[in-house]
Model the fold of this input.
Amino acid sequence: MRTAWPGLLLTLLLTLAPDAPGHADTGFGIGGGQALPDIRLELGDGSNALLSELAGQQPLLLTFFYRRCTGVCTPFLSLLHDATARVGGAGSDYHILALSFDEADTLQDLRSQAAALGLADTAGWSFATTTPAQLRLITGALGFEARPAAQPGQFDHAALLAAVRQGQLIDRMTMAAGRSDLRRLHALVRELRGEFIPVLPRPGRMALGCFRFDARTGLILPDWGLLLLAAPALGSLGALALLFVRSGPPR
Amino acid sequence: MRTIDTQTALWMAVTFILFPVLALLGITMRTVQAGGLEAMAGWFYPLMTLHGVGMVGVWYVAAMGCAASVLARHVAPSPLIGRIALAGTVIGVLMLLACVLLGRFAAGWYFLYPLPLHGEWPLWSAVLFLASLTVLGATWLVWSLDLLRAIAARFTLAQALGWHYLRGQTEPVLPPSLLIVTVSLIAGIAALVSAVIVIVLFALELLTGTSSDALLMKNLTFFFGHTLVNLSMYLGVALAYEILPDYAGRPWKTNPVVVVSWNTVLAIVLLAYLHHLYMDFAQPGGLQYLGQVASYASALPAAIVTIFGALLLVYRATMRWNLASILLFAGLAGWAIGGIGAVIDSTISANTRLHNTLWVPAHFHTYMLAGLVFLIAGYFAHLARPAATADASPRRDRTIALLLVGGAYGFFAMFYLAGAWSIPRRFAAYPAELAHGATTAGIAAAFATLFLAGFLYYALDTVRQWRTATRTD
Ligand code: HEM
Ligand SMILES: [Cu+2]
Done:
């Protein structure tokens, strides 16, 4: 299938290029989802690869980081490491790419970040950098933003995780510093692994739910809202009690 | 003794005015589906919503009005609450008309969350719709409570549910109609409480932006919608128990079998709605199986006992057939036939095929139109036609019955046929692949017009007979 890429890219080049934003002269992906630009990566071991080549046929989990981050990056990567270890399948069912968004990051930085997480030789994980122009393409496509922060060398940014299958974005989540939404993270990894996820938490405030999906175990558990379903019957029983008891002994 | 009291006459007037209009909307929909009336195509979904909510509401209040009039023969419902029920219903219907005709509200008769808040219609029309439901729901809740209060004034709960018959006692005598009305009212209160919860959750979202769990809302909405329609049907069946004996010349009494079957209904009916969620994969499997079991258990015992009871009542009796008895009997038959279609559809393996095809409107129109509508029309005919009227005309009765029955079943047949061919429901215009859907729609429109002609003939004749009778009284 690898050999099909050039042809596919050519087709996409011809169909997408005129109205693609910026310098997106390449993109990959087929079907209805949002196609991502096929950027060129430099991997921690010094080799080069296209995004489309990195994972081959496998789906891809894509996240951004930078080595000197004193905020969310390392905790998030380790949460992701933990989630993929629990769900399983990294390297066989999907691939994970941590892409640096700091121009200052060197190949040595990539390697030390991987080592710090205990991921130096872990199958399925890649750490990479790319050129600023290519970076703008992919962050633009995924809606990822990083602004220089007050402290020198630091960026204000949220953690983002994108699930990509056949070059298409199928799901994405962001996690602000200090708020870890593990449920969602697990669900996303399971979903990418090909599991059917019937329930996904909706962002925003919600009154009462009737079932809760535990993304860690994949179980559907009863939730408090279920009690509301008993309310009509209880209301009716209450009315009966009032009407028939209060009316006293019938003649 | 059989003249109509004012309140029942008013409910009859409401029915005779609103039903033909709503039926005309139905014929319009079928015509649009057949490719005619292009100018109305943009109105399909608002009309469908008005037709669905309107029909369900009209026949629920008609059934309640008739139940109240039957109850009045045995116990004493409050006349004041009766008037409030009428006023609240009229106000609610006017609000409903406004939100659909002015706001083009079109979320379908069960307004599934969150669609009402996200349609092409203005938000005020959704708010007006919910407000109209609030008025109707509150009115009907008060009405149901009053009717139960009237029953409670004369019977204990155990007596009203006929439990003393199980111990071999027959005193106090409990007419089967009273047993069925009691069961229906209890279920009805639960349904209306569920509607209140749905409306509160909608209001919460409108006022505070707190969204609701779509699955919970769907459960609550069908708890309300399914149960309300289901018990309207039972109230109609109670009329047959009450009136058919007059024509058979024999009593139709409560006995342990009747008591067991209707108490089974009470125990199970609140779970039957689960069959509306078969396609909701997020609903746990256990509840789906429960839905199938509850659908069977709430439908079969009562239906079988009633149908056999009715056949035994008529068997070798010197049956007096006139429009009232024909319609009551046809109504029970329509209930049974539509019920078979419903039981098929509530079977999970069949539902995977039939879900959201025209099979669904096929079966519910059968037991609503040829069941409930016939039963209530029979009851009105009975009230309006005193036994010895000089005006009786078997030929006219037969003509009316033929138009009603023939028109209705021709109309249903097209729904069933299209459903078996997998034509989806709720399509305003059928694409080329579904051209046979348009053909059946055209034939259905013709049959429905016959039916409507029959109904208008029936309504005019009934009013005329009633006026003759009151004048000669
Ligand atoms: C002459 C009489 C009637 C005609 C011609 C008629 C026609 C129709 C048509 C064409 C539809 C839309 C079907 C579709 O999904 O494509 C419909 C839906 C419906 N009808 Fe009727 N109908 C009649 C009587 C009744 C009665 C007596 C009731 C209830 C008591 C009723 C309740 C409903 C409901 C609840 C819907 C579903 C609306 C929705 O999907 O939201 N109809 N009818
Ligand atoms: Cu960071």
